[in-house]
Sequence to fold (567 residues):
Amino acid sequence: MYSRIPQAFIDEVIGRTDIVELIDSRITLKKKGKEYAACCPFHNEKTASFTVSPEKQFYHCFGCGAHGTALGFLMEYERLDFIEAVEVLAQQHGLEVPKDNNSFIKNDFQPLYILLEQANTYFQKSLRKHQHAINYLKDRGVSGEIAAQYNLGYAEDGFENLLKQFDSAATQEQLIEIGLIKKNDKGGIYDRFRNRIIFPIKDRRGRVIGFGGRAIDDAVPKYLNSPETPVFHKSEALYGLYEARKAKQTARSLIVVEGYMDVVALAQHGIENVVATLGTATTSQHIQNLYRCTQEIVFCFDGDRAGRDAAWRAAQQTIPLFKDGLEAKFLFLPQGEDPDSLIRSRGKEIFLQYINEGDSLATFIFSKLSEDIDIRSPSGKARLAQLAKPLLEKFPNGVFKQLIFEELEKKVGAPIDYTSTSLTRPKPANVTSNKVTPVRLAVAALLHQPSLALEVDSIDFLHENQIAGVPLLSKIIQIWKQQPELTHAALIERFRDQPEEQQIQKLMSWDPPEMADPQATLQDALVWIQRKTQSSRVQELIDKQNTDGLNEDERQEFKNLLHQKAS
Fold:
């Protein structure tokens, strides 16, 4: 695969996509004048403030400030990354994302992905040849269907079984790089995984990035993972996420467990929205990856001290990312049970009952903070407030933050002073509160009437201009002069992940009264910029004349500028 998609292809996909049709297939839009409206899918509201412009191929919510193109909507609504969103739109239009090396920057890790997939195939074939490994999975209640669904494999006992499959020295170096082969102190090389059930770990796009191995004898450690590699990072990877994203339940929630076999065992009983961390504590990157796929995370831990400590670390990672509309639960299993043993002994319904009865994030926080505190006493209540306040202030501003502080106030029986700036209804996130400047008006005029760019004769005076907003204005004029057929949405995508992205998206929905005549607005702004630029240059030359003096060219420039200023 490639890390960059040609801009021309993105323009093509955007140009073929009708944003109204795309969004209407997911939420119901109603015609409202020239635009379409609905209740915003990104925050709770009773009055529709979410609008879609068929002319600009752009959506905007005046309540929460969400805005963007068709690609942006797919990324936010379906929690896709950019490449995945492009692939979805391309597929809808019968287009294939091109693999033209002249247009793409090739990913240097592609050979590693190929090698990992070849190893994955080898492990799967090996499983089918070894009955004792198949029997181990059968004894654990794993069917052939589930083994195939998760691509389970087997690494034979021995030090060179995988090694013999790849005999070139260059390939062996790559196998060392991806952690499938180890090198000893004497320079000898041997297989990392031996006599283990193999669990391939995949990224969101289904590419194998590493492996986990479960010993089927008394070998130590019981579980062995791939080491950190250029494509495998434990702090980001989640076993089963690729498979879980296909499950119907994932839209509602994702269950986080601790082991590979827990994921497979729950899938065996029809619970497929399950992922596992890879023997590491839950990280903020894990949380972000999970919330891109679902609105609710259910953390499932052992009920012992270690399990509760792990849950507390997960809660602390969740708090700064916990926006309004998200959910988190904490489930603690009976002593001595894990998801694998519990569902095999007591069945799916009992396990789901445990899920439903899990503690909410707020309940778990207050329960944890109240340990070893007598909250019936004034000093205990003061201690709870002291512990809770700095932690709760890490929540993003919003309704949930307000409510959890109100809950704290009820528990301690006293008002709590905290630093939230959004206890009232969020101010509509548009640009009308910003200062109206000629440059902002010029950009807005172009966004309302792109053909105006063709009427601008020369923009030389805009190049390398330091007036705020002028570099963005210059870029927009250049883009539309070169490609006048470009849509608004395609223009916005030119600025994706650039510093100007948010600015241009906000200006897209701005319609100030000062811009009744877009053509006059743009011309007035360009004249203002030119005069301001000239005045700044005149002052620079005056300052230099008073210090170092001017050379012949600068004296002539000074004379010309004064003449232009007087005319």
In short: The CA atoms of residues 114 and 208 lie 9 Å apart. The chain has 23 helices and 16 strands. Residues 420-433 have pLDDT under 50 and may be disordered.
